[in-house]
């Protein structure tokens, strides 16, 4: 964690609310992106995103660098909120259905993408839940292995290994274009 | 394009072999790439909301008990202490979250982050509110005996001496499928020094001829506030445990005539009436119920009443407890002695008002994975000796009546346990997944618990087995008592005639649980 970020967190913990501003600015887009692909629509993404930052602010005193990076801590809160969201609507939705479509793209490309995504999703569904999560965190959320390791509670080496083996499996099942679509997070 | 390709190679170096083809595909993909558009108004509004904070000037951020605070804050001592605080703009209480809830927050932390669970203690020293702190292990006190002696609740009533009965448990349920390798153990996160470090300025304290500044790292633990008005309540705020309790301020309530007037069973109002009184109070004072399930009326005293041979002399309690069961990760919490744990409201059913509210806590938790026991027979073995922390003794005693108790297929819930933390000599509150075996029947209907509880964490099971195997064999078999009648005495039940040893946990040790045999 960079020194500036660490200082901002300490200031927050000492009661300086303003210091949360730069932290928010740094992570709002990342957390929003993380949530965006995992919920049905923009409104839910905004709602879960709001909850994530509100909870992070309230719980800032419980954060310690010993628990990992601030980034991974935020992602964990976002992930927990996501799980809470799916629990609340568990009769209608599945937390493993991570791929939802944006509501502001044209129908044609969306439809085309949906077909492609369905194929990718089908392929990923053959993976174990843990493998799938690591693939998504690395490729779609562009997190480092160090951050992923903290989120999924595994070692960095183990995450790399799982990622690499999972990719091998996917590559065997998907045509190159879909494989790249997955890797490029489009 | 080149950067994208570099990124791809970093993910999968094998792709470099197909660079030409890759370029074509990536070009097409780039052309159709949807963008995640974040609404800038949303970003701006959320930022504003976060940085504005809420009710920054309200001490403690205890929004739902402001009514009490405003009443009690008039106390001279508090004024002396708090006024300097309010004048100190460097202090900002916007983060203070002592028992201020917005639902439940559970943060995942590393595996086995709470250390070894081998030193779990079944009860906690000091005042406890959930009624599971009987303390004895092998010989059980009555499940209804409660260490909270402040109230006159149904469950703190005086329990009778137990009869000499030994229960033989038999599991008659379906096969137990153990479907996972690890389980999340949940710990309530307690900051512990909110009042201590931020609220109070001891250098301004001027009570008595004492130089407070000479005391090193002086902190507040508890403060009490009271309503200085008729029919008032008082609050105790425990900073260390981040818990708040509300009690009737007896001095401000009219003295009751006919104090000894005995209630009859026909005087007991319906559950609906009692719950309505409780709900109304909870709502009026803004206590957040979102972490809890539907309220239930504690019926233990009724079970005892029904079992009693002499109902004429049975003491019908004037207060009844309502439990709002805490729900974490879709599971209800049980105490080790099978009561449900949660927010507890005590209602005076004679005068129709609330006399106390206990276990108002923060709901910030951490969860950490622990290995789960994989052998069904080990779970059932413990269930068939009466559950976790009930140990088998091998010496037969013909004078003790044997009663068979059947246990049904368990559900997976959470049990509340305490772990001793040697670092600060405090007890940590843990919630551990456990099988809850329903008691289907007992031959004479005397067994007073509804459930037998067995946690599923390997370390706990192993420790429990070790304790059981290490027990001496030359003592009489313990029994679980039957409430026969009400009477005087202390809440905790001891074996009669002094013919059985008492077994107590030694919580002073940092090592594993020790069993002491006391004569």
Explain the overall architecture:
The complex is a heterodimer of chains A (186) and B (519). By secondary structure, chain A is an all-alpha fold. Chain A is built from 9 helices and no strands. In chain A, α4 crosses α7. Chain A starts with a helix and ends with a helix. Chain B has 519 residues and is of the alpha+beta class. Chain B is 20% helix and 24% strand. In chain B, β5 and β6 (233-238) form a beta hairpin. The longest helix of chain B is centred in the middle third of the chain and has 14 residues, at 271-284. The N and C termini of chain B lie far apart (83 Å). Mean pLDDT of chain B is 69; it is low at 54-101, 122-163 and 474-519. At the A-B interface, α2, α3, α4, α5 and α9 of A face α1, α2, α3 and β1 of B.
Number of helices of chain B: 10
Low-confidence segments of chain A, given as residue ranges, are 90-110
What is the string of SSEs of chain A from the N terminus onward?
HHHHHHHHH
**Poorly predicted segments of chain B:** 54-101, 122-163, 474-519
> How helical, in percent, are the residues of chain B?
10-25%
Q: Strand fraction band of chain B?
A: 15-25%
Shape of chain B: extended
Largest sheet geometry of chain A: none
SS content category of chain B: alpha+beta
Mean pLDDT of chain B: 69
Strand-residue fraction of chain A? under 5%
Enumerate how many helices of chain A there are, as a single number: 9
Output mean pLDDT of chain A: 75
Shape annotation of chain A: globular
Instruction: Give the % helix of chain A.
Output: 55-70%
How many β-strand stretches of chain B? 20
User: Termini separation of chain B (Å)?
Assistant: 83 Å
Structural Rg of chain A = 17 Å
Chain pair sharing the greatest interface: A-B, 55 and 49 residues
What profile does the largest beta sheet of chain B have?
11 strands, mixed
User: Strand tally of chain A, please?
Assistant: 0
């Amino acid at each position: 964690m960079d020194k500036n970020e660490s200082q901002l967190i300490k200031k927050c913990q000492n009661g300086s609310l303003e210091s949360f501003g730069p932290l928010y600015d740094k992570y709002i887009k990342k957390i929003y992106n993380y949530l965006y692909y995992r919920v049905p629509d923009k409104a839910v993404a905004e709602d879960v995103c709001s909850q994530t930052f509100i909870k992070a602010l309230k719980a800032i005193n419980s954060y310690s660098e010993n628990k990992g990076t601030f980034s991974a801590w935020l992602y964990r809160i976002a992930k927990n909120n996501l799980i809470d969201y799916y629990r609340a609507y568990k009769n209608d939705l599945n937390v493993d259905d991570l791929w939802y479509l944006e509501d502001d793209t044209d129908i044609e490309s969306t439809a085309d993408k949906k077909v492609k995504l369905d194929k990718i999703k089908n392929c990923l569904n053959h993976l174990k839940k843990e493998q799938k999560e690591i693939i998504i965190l690395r490729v779609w959320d562009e997190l480092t292995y160090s951050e992923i390791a903290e989120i999924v509670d595994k070692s960095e080496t183990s995450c790399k290994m799982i990622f690499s083996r999972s990719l091998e499996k996917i590559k065997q099942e998907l045509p190159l274009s879909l494989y790249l679509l997955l890797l490029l997070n489009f | 394009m080149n950067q994208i390709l570099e990124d791809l190679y970093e993910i999968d170096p094998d792709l470099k072999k197909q660079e030409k083809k890759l370029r074509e595909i990536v070009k097409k993909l780039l052309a159709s790439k949807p963008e995640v558009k974040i609404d800038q108004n949303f970003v701006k509004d959320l930022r504003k909301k976060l940085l504005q904070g809420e009710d920054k000037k309200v001490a403690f951020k205890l929004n739902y008990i402001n009514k009490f605070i405003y009443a009690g804050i008039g106390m001279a001592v508090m004024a002396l202490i708090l006024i300097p605080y309010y004048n100190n703009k460097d202090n900002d209480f916007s983060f203070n979250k002592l028992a201020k809830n917005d639902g439940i927050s559970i943060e995942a932390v590393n595996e086995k982050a709470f250390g070894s669970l081998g030193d779990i203690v079944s009860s906690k020293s000091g005042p406890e509110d959930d009624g599971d702190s009987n303390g004895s292990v092998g010989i059980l006190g009555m499940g209804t005996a409660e260490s909270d002696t402040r109230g006159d609740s149904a469950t703190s009533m005086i329990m009778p001496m137990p009869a000499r009965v030994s229960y033989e448990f038999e599991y008659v349920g379906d096969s137990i499928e153990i479907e996972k390798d690890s389980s999340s153990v949940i710990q309530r996160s307690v900051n512990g020094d909110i009042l201590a470090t931020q609220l109070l300025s001891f250098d301004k304290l001027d009570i008595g001829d004492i130089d407070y500044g000479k005391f090193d790292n002086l902190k507040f633990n508890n403060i009490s506030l009271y309503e200085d008005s008729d029919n008032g309540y008082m609050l105790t705020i425990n900073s260390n445990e981040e818990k708040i309790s509300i009690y009737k301020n007896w001095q401000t309530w009219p003295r009751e005539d006919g104090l000894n007037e005995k209630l009859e069973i026909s005087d007991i109002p319906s559950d609906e009436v009692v719950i309505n009184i409780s709900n109304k109070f909870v709502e009026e004072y803004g206590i957040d119920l979102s972490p809890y399930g539907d309220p239930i009326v504690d019926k233990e005293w009724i079970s005892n009443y029904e079992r009693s041979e002499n109902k004429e002399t049975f003491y019908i309690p004037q207060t009844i407890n309502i439990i709002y069961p805490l729900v974490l990760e879709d599971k209800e919490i049980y105490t080790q002695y099978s009561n449900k744990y949660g927010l507890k409201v005590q209602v005076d059913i004679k005068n129709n008002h609330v006399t106390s509210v206990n276990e108002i806590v923060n709901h910030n938790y951490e969860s950490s994975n622990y290995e789960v026991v994989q052998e069904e027979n080990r779970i059932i073995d413990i269930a068939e000796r009466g559950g976790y922390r009930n140990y088998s003794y091998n010496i037969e005693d013909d004078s003790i009546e044997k009663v068979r108790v059947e246990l049904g297929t368990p559900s997976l819930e959470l049990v509340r346990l305490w772990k001793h933390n040697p670092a600060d000599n405090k007890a940590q509150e843990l919630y551990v997944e456990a099988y809850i075996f329903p008691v289907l029947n007992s031959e004479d209907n005397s067994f007073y618990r509804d459930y037998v509880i067995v946690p599923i964490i390997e370390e706990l099971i192993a420790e429990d087995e070790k304790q059981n195997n290490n027990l001496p064999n030359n003592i009489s078999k313990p029994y679980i008592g039957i409430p026969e009648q009400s009477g005087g005495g202390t809440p905790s039940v001891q074996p009669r005639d002094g013919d059985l040893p008492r077994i107590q946990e030694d919580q002073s040790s940092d090592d594993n649980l020790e069993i002491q045999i006391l004569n």
